[in-house]
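Moderator note: this is an archived Q&A kept for reference. The question asked for a predicted structure of one protein chain; the sequence and the answer are reproduced below.
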Amino acid sequence: MAEQTENSSQKKYHVGVEVALEVMGGKWKPLIIYHLMTGRKRTSELRRLIPGITQKMLTTQLRGLEKDEIVTRKVYNEVPPKVEYELTPYGWGLKPALDHLCYWGEDHLEKVYGDKSKVLAEFESCIE
């Protein structure tokens, strides 16, 4: 979340969704969280699961999620270094919201295209 210094005033929010979007909003963070709901992942796995994301963007987004305590980063003491990310218990609290977005998105595809498998690159239903 936004850090405060002694000289700054506390940020004011109007509704809770504003806070949620600040933490997990954007194009990439929800996808990262979604894929981590299936278990711990290495950076290379996330890159493979999220086509179009650059290494720099993935690193930036993971750092932000780590700062907000949504994910944890585990570094293994081996050569070459092995790093894995997983959701924290706090991060798991986002699962119901992402589930609803996923179901709504699938319903929307059915409404617009009739058959969602026509437009989903690799049809994979929402995570249960």
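Archived answer notes: The mean pLDDT is 88.
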